[in-house]
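re: ur question from earlier - yeah i can do the single chain one, its not a big deal. heres the input i used so u can compare w yours
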Amino acid sequence: MFYVLAGCAVYDGWLSMSQISMSATPVNPTVATAAAAPYVPSVETVIQPKKGWIGIDWQELFTRRELLFFMIWRDVKVKYKQAIFGSAWSVVVPLVSVMIYSIVGHFAGFARGVQGVPYEIYIYAGLLPWLFLQQAINGGGMSLVNNQAMLSKIYLPRLYIPTSMIGSACVDMFMSCLVFTGMLIFFYFYKGFVPSWQIVFLPFLFALLMLAALGTSYLLSALTVMFRDLRFIIPFITQLGIWLTAVVYPQTIYVIKHADGTVSDYRNWLALNPFAGIIQGFRACIIGQEVQWLQLASSIVLCSVLFVVGLFYFKRVERRFADIA
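and the output i got, formated as tokens:
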């Protein structure tokens, strides 16, 4: 009996010492804080149809804007990848175009319709916005078809795809503007040509140019996915448009003087072309040409309608892109 009681006392003492040693064990403050922190549920993204007339998630477009910048940078790198001259092509193409159209203009007699301005400056002032629109029509129109894998495998704001093509076109236009600035400096010392004070209105015209490019790109990219025949029509549109928009010749050829002294002015018909007012506006701002207000007002209205219609149609058929592409 004595041994039993002694064993129990020893066992109780061992339990007390183990409890004391356990209570004296230091606790990791990080673990304690994590245990005491409230439960925070993980962020969940729900993809569902958007309400509204067009249904654009502007907040999503803003929060994921970094993706747009990377897509623009990707388009610029891919465009000039493995090219011998690289990005220098953005300088060579407008210079060669100015040279060719200047020679054609002198032989065709177009240069006689331009007074007091170097014909090369006149041509470049029109080609500068047109090359931007041309890339919006060609590149933006084919952007969704050329990114079929991206459409069917991952989710991203689909508007970013044609918009990134416009962003890469802005980079090319910036390089062309640097070349144009050098040309203006050359002709200032060579012929004393000074740009017009109206050049301060160029930012307004560039905003209108962006509106026209985005609207055209949205509309053509969506139509090309739905109707693949447009892949063969789009290059023809740019080739025909350079003549219908009076890019490489003066609009004075539409002013006809008759033998009886009367004058017929057909320049107002160009107001039916949404791009004609932009091209003429760029020239008016740079070389001080008379502004064709009817053409400019028509471009503002038609380009605004083009942007809304292109954006609306793009969002209407967007849900079918992954199935058709």
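Residues 1-25, 30-34 have pLDDT under 50 and may be disordered. not sure if urs matches, ping me
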